[in-house]
Structure formats: structure tokens, C-alpha cells
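INFO  loader      accepted 1 record
INFO  loader      residues=172
INFO  predictor   begin
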Amino acid sequence: MVVGALALGLAVALTLVPADEASAQDLGGGDQTRADVSRVGRAGEIRTSSAVGAAFFGAACINGICWPGATLIHTIRGTGRSITYQEGFFTDLVGAGTAGRQFCNWRIDFVDYNSSGGVNRRSRGAIHSGCTILENGRKSTVDRTAARSTVKSCAELYSADVRIVRQCHYIF
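INFO  predictor   done
INFO  writer      dumping C-alpha cells
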């Protein structure tokens, strides 16, 4: 299932419905998805689900026609509130730094938010010194259980300690 539009982002998953709102704090776009990360199968069997979403940011323009310059892809897997895998990676869609900048001293954080927008948990990624214009990312295979008050889990890209973009999945 594909949800969203190019201007707002793209979300692909097995069990997704559109979110009610996009992240107001994204720079240049973004997308949130709702993912029920647990589904009951036949005979009460619990199946693991996953969700993949993309947040586009930056722009490349030629003769006044512009398109997204880069993307942050966020994948999450698990069952219920149990999260077994998260991955966040960014890539320049056109090459040569068309996202408008190089990414210097970058990191990707995985952040759980409650319904008031407060942070329940932040897993701060390692800072990668130097500058990058191509693809880079972070994976986490640490099994964990999201707090009962967590409503969404996000991947956030930072460069020089400034958040560039985030992509979130609602979890229930």
C-alpha cells in the first residue's frame, strides 16, 4: 500500500493507514504513518509487522522545476509494543549534494514520543565526523518495549547538532 504524495513523502508497509497530521517540525516535508505493529493471525498466532516510510527534504531545481533532493528512510519492525528492529538512512536522490548541503558531523536518533509530544525515549546515534553527500545510516537490532504512553517512534537526522528531518510511525 502506498500512502502520501511526493511533496509530503512516501510510506509503504503491510499495515498502514494515513496519519492525521504531518510533522510540523520537518524542514521541507516529511511523513508520518500509522502502523499497527501487531496483527492476530489464524488460531491466535501473532505475526510481526513492519512499516517503512520516507521523508523528503532539500530540493534540486532546473529551470524552475524542483523535486526532492534527499530522503530519510525509516523502517520499524515488531509485535505489539515490542520493537525488534529500526533502521534509518538518508540518501541524496540526485547526487552531488543536491539536498542543499553536505551532512557534516551527522547522526541518526531513534525517538519515541507520547501523545503530548514529549520524549519518552531517545537512542542517540553515534556522531559521524567529517562530511557526507551520499548514502549513510544507522540500524538497531536491540529488542525493546515501547512505553505504554508512546504513540509514535521516529528516526531523526541531525547534522552539526541541528535536526534536518524526521520520519515517524504511529504505533499502538
